[in-house]
Every structure is written in C-alpha cells, then in structure tokens.
Amino acid sequence: MQPVSYARATDVTSAIATVSADPESAFLAGGTTEVDLLRQDVVRPKRLVDINALPLTEIEDLPGGGLRIGALARMSDVAEAPGVVERFPVISQALVLGASAQLRHMASMGGNLLQRVRCSYFRDIASPCNKRVPGTGCSALEGINRGHAVLGTSDHCIATHPSDLAVALMALDAVVHTDGPSGHRAIGIDDFFLLPGDTPHIEHPLQHGELVVSIEVPPTPVARRSLYLKVRDRESYEFALASVAVALRVEGGRVGEVRLALGGVATKPWRARQAERELLGQPAERASFARAAAAEMAAAVPRGMNAFKVELAQRAMVRALEQATRMGGAA
Amino acid sequence: MSDGRSAPAVAEAAALQTRGPDAVPVELSINGVTHELRIEPRVSLLDALRERLDLTGTKKGCDQGTCGACTVWVDGRRVLACLTLAMVCEGHEVTTIEGLASGEELHPMQRAFLDHDAFQCGYCTAGQIMSAVALLEEGHASSDAEIAEWMSGNICRCAAYPNIRAAVREVRDGQRGGASAAG
Fold first, then answer.
1. Contact between A17 and B85 using a beta-carbon 8 Å cutoff
2. B68 contacts in A (CB within 8 Å)?
3. Which of A177, B132, B144, B177 is deepest in the core (most CB within 10 A)?
4. Same domain, B79 and B117
C-alpha cells in the first residue's frame, strides 16, 4: 500500500470541492472495499477524504409510501429500519444476506453501490485486466471464470457485479441522488450501472468528485410482498452464484404485477425485463415461471466454467416466484 | 433539482485540511484510555493496536476482511480493525478484547468460552468473543441457526463452532435469568 494523506470532511460541499479539485483524491466511506484495494495497490489515490462525518445517514419513510436512504446509512441500520422491513422486505433481506455482521456495520449504502468487482484478476495487479488497466486484455475469458457473468458481458470484461442491495434496488426502480462539481443529479438505478462494452473501466456515469448523497425508492405497493433469494457455495458470508429479487402480485391466479431482477450472473444488477413481459397475465404457476426464466436466459453467453449459471439462474427465478406466490396467497 | 448544492458553492468552498502522508500525531481512545501516537494515515486500526500500542489481543488473520480475527468495537459496534484506518477512529471509542474484563474478573463470555472449551488453537478467539458479546447486544441469538448466521463473519479453522455456540447460548440464557453480561 502506497503512502496516502488524509482529510476529514464535515460538510458535503467541502468534501466535493476537495476531491473534485484533485484527480488523485478519493472519498473514503466505510472502507470495506476501498481499504482492501488500497492495500493491494489496485486503487492508488494520493489523498483520502473521509466522508463518514457527513450528515447523510438518515433513513426516511416518505409521504406517499416512498423511501429515502442517506448514502452513509450503514447496511445493518437500513436492514433493520421498520419502514424497510415492512414495506420493502426485499431490500432488508438483500442486505442481511450480504457480507457479515461486522462488514454490515461498516459498509455504507453509497459505498455498496460503488463497490468494485470481486474478479480475482481485477484484484491481482500482476494479471492483465481491462477494468484495472484498459487495453491489457481480460484474463477471465479463458481463465478461472466460474464466478463470472453470463449476461451483459463483452469480449473485454465478464466480471460479475457483486452487490445484493443493488439487485433489490433495480427491481424497485430506485433513483440515485448525487451532488457534484456541477450541482445535483438524480440518476435512475438502471443508468447508474454501465455495461462493460469496450470501456469496462467506466462503471458509473459519475464525474470525479461527484458524491452519492441518497438513494430514493419510489412508492411500490407490490414490494410489501417481495423477497430476495440468494444461492451460493456456502450458506452465509459468500457472494451469490445466482440471486433473485422478486415482488409479485397475483390476481385471480394470474400474474397481475411483477418485478424481477438478478444478481450473481450479470455484469450489472440485472432487471429481468424479458421475464417480466412473459409473466404478465400468465397463470401464477411453475410452467409459466419456467418459460419466463428460460426467455430471460436465452441471451446468456456462458464461458466454460460458468455455464452452470444459465440453468441455476432459471431454477432460482422459478423458486423465488413460487415463494412469492405463496406469500401473495397469504396476504 | 432545487434541493441541490449549487456549482458555484462548490467552486468557492475551501479545500479541507490535509494530514500526511508522513506520520502525523493521532489521538485514539481505546478501552477508555487516550493514546497519542504518530502514524501515517495508511496505518490500519489493527496495526496501530498491535504494532504501536502493544494491544496484541486483537489478531491479524487475513488482513483483508474475510476472517473476523481482528473484530473490535468502534462506538460499541463490532467492526473489522484490518479494514478500518486508525485515523478514521479519531473522536470515536475503540474497545478491544483487553477492555472486556473488569480487572481480574473475566467477562461472562470469556468465562463461557473457557467453560465450554470453545477453541483449540485460540487464534480466532478474541475476535469470536468480541463478536459474540456484540451479537447478544444486537439480539440475533435466538436459535443455533441464528447464532451461526450472525457469527458467520468469524471463521474458526479448528471448527470449534459447536462449542462457540454453546458458550453463546450459556451467556444468552444467563442474561435471560437476570445476570448482567454488559460489556
């Protein structure tokens, strides 16, 4: 880890001014990804601007049924907030199924969205990686790629987006609010995560010095009947091989409304729009769920060791939809 | 958006005071005692505890946030000292395993770990105990399955898990009986 200097910010404007004026400065929040990557020389800022003292920790139930979460609210606090547990269980479950209790106390909501990929080649500075050093090639294409993505990939990068939270937020059409050198912006969650294409080093549409200040979830009545299913190699404290965020309303035995998003299988939190279209109006039963899941995964591009994810993601979608159907029946 | 900070305000804001990258004076409050030390900003809380303050009860396992051996509390919440920079803890209260006992009297969780033989090599034990006391505070120890889930951030390569759970259960049930186990 190279030497680094430190500044503590107490107001948002000064934090943004300090980072945006210096290309070699970076914000520091919970540090659970950043300190790890600093130590491995994967990221090399010369100055850290500690934003943990900024007043961005509030979790607010908005009039009308929405939710606003401060960017520095910790994963553990958001997971247990009554309004989240009651009205957006998929968010609470995605948070609790991520990381460990210690890390959830440390990690912020904004940092969670901005966490870097867990691809071992990205994190090993001796390996070629287009995300870390553009133009050097992707070691995962022909390498150890069991954990890598099958959706949204390119020939330049197949790293899986690691966040569970972001999958839940994708299903709920959340909006990311930022402040930056050019003022305030509201960015739809789908636009906040970029596909790798031929620029995998550009992951978000943020300017240098632009700071996530809050995440807003619009009123979503269907989210009261939502859940997060996570399939992984061990039962706890592990990243997803495939995960599903689902919210479902069944009317007269048919799918009246559905939100479906996938984690663990794509280069960004993946809204399963094809499956949603296939499901609407169909009988809420296994056969329709399987057809929709197959339709979503038709575009999958497996690469050797990760081919099992194409089937696994379909089974996970079917199971999550069946669980959500049973919840709906009990409502 | 009307609620945003304006671009001119950012342009006019003064840059923040910067410290380092060389060693700078840092004041840390650990187990209720204030320590003054000179460290570089890149120094982790874990290294500051072990290498500068001789508080070696907190262990370095993976140094990358995956094993839990370095679990300490900051402002009463369990966190990983390896992924926490020491300077970030200025103005906050750090508690380590050395701060758990009252003089010669062990914390009930320390006592329970001894009574239940909840370790073999002992390397993960300080982290397990700091995590276990916090777990009871957090209220996620109602069943063995819940204990396992909420202790999953503390790896024990000797696999003393059944005995660790037994120790946690004993302190939990002792608390239900009215005995105080406050840390």
1. no
2. 100, 102
3. B132
4. no
**Domains of chain A, earliest start first:** 5-50 (3.30.43.10), 221-330 (3.30.390.50)
Interface predicted TM-score of the whole assembly (ipTM), two decimals:
0.96
Spatial distance between the Cα atoms of A285 and A322, rounded to a whole number of angstroms: 7
- Tokens in use for A186? 């509201």
Q: In this complex, which of A20, A38, A100 lies closest to B68 when CB atoms are compared? A: A100
- B66 with B128, same domain: the answer is no
Closest CA of chain B from A154, distance in Å? 29
**Residues of chain B positioned with their CB less than 8 A from the CB of A101:** 78, 131, 134-135, 138, 140, 150-153
Nearest to B13 among A13, A186, A235 (CB): A13
Question: Domain check: are B161 and B134 in the same one?
Answer: yes
Is 0.90 topped by the overall pTM? yes
* Residue where one domain finishes, among candidates B49, B80, B99: B99
A3, A17, A50 ranked by CB distance to B15: nearest: A17
Q: Which domain holds residue B35?
A: 24-99
Q: What is the pLDDT along chain B (183 residues), one digit of tens a residue?
A: 444 456 667 877 877 999 999 999 999 999 999 999 999 999 999 999 999 999 999 999 999 999 999 999 999 999 999 999 999 999 999 999 999 999 999 999 999 999 999 999 999 999 999 999 999 999 999 999 999 999 999 999 999 999 999 999 999 999 654 444 444
pLDDT tens-digit series, residues A235-247: 999 999 999 999 9
Distance between start and end Cα atoms, chain B: 47
B115 and B61 assigned to the same domain: no
Number of domains in chain B: 2
Tokens of A185: 């912006």
To probe the interface with B, which of A100, A124, A176, A184 has the most B CB atoms within 10 Å?
Answer: A100
Collapsing DSSP to helix, strand or coil, A179 comes out as strand
Cβ-defined contact of A31 to B4 (cutoff 8 Å): no
- Phi and psi at B139, nearest 5°, equal 80, 35
The residue in chain B having the minimum alpha-carbon distance to the alpha carbon of residue A17 is B10
Boundary-marking domain end, from B39, B69, B99 = B99
Does residue B13 lie in a domain region? Answer: no
Within this chain, do residues B114 and B95 fall inside the same structural domain, yes or no? no
Scanning every residue of chain B, which has its alpha carbon at the shortest distance from the alpha carbon of A80?
Answer: B138
